Amino acid sequence: QVQLVESGGGLVQAGGSLRLSCAASRSIFSINVMGWYRQAPGKQRELVATISSGGSIDYADSVKGRFTISRDNAKNTMYLQMSSLKPEDTAVYYCHAVTVGGLGYWGQGTQVTVSS
């Protein structure tokens, strides 16, 4: 089992930056894919970015060029650097991990609010 804890959310003005962190309870070497998702009020949860154990990265079109996902296996942590934030980026951001065995885990989420 893997427990995921997000941190780094908060309130920021449009154009600002935030860095989210997702700390795993154990080594992420055995985690195949990690990713960030977000859910805005009244909307479905959507993919933001994913990163595989091999370093392959994918972004939603809406965040390309503004967000950067990374992972530090030595610290068992994944990051999401968010820049040029827009009010439409306001959402609860969730960390997700899929093990090599195919099991998926979610964090509890962290709120990001971007004011105009």
Please tag this protein with its features:
single chain, 116 residues, mainly beta, 7-stranded mixed β-sheet, 4-stranded antiparallel β-sheet, 11 strands, 55% strand, globular
Short description, anyone?
The chain has about 120 residues and is mostly beta strands. The chain has strands at about 5, 10-15, 20-25, 30-40, 45-50, 55-60, 65-70, 75-80, 90-100, 105, 110-115. The relative contact order is 0.33.
Explain the overall architecture.
This protein has 116 residues and is mainly β. Helix content is 0%, strand content 55%. The radius of gyration is 13 Å and the shape is globular.
Written as H for each helix and E for each strand, in order along the chain, the element string is: EEEEEEEEEEE
Secondary structure category: mainly beta
Task: Report helical residue fraction.
Answer: under 10%
Strand content: over 45%
**What's the story with the biggest beta sheet?**
7 strands, mixed
In whole angstroms, the N-to-C terminal distance is 40 Å
| Beta-strand segment tally | 11
Radius of gyration of CA atoms, rounded to a whole number: 13 Å
List the uncertain runs: none
Helical region count? 0
Shape: globular
pLDDT averaged residue by residue:
95
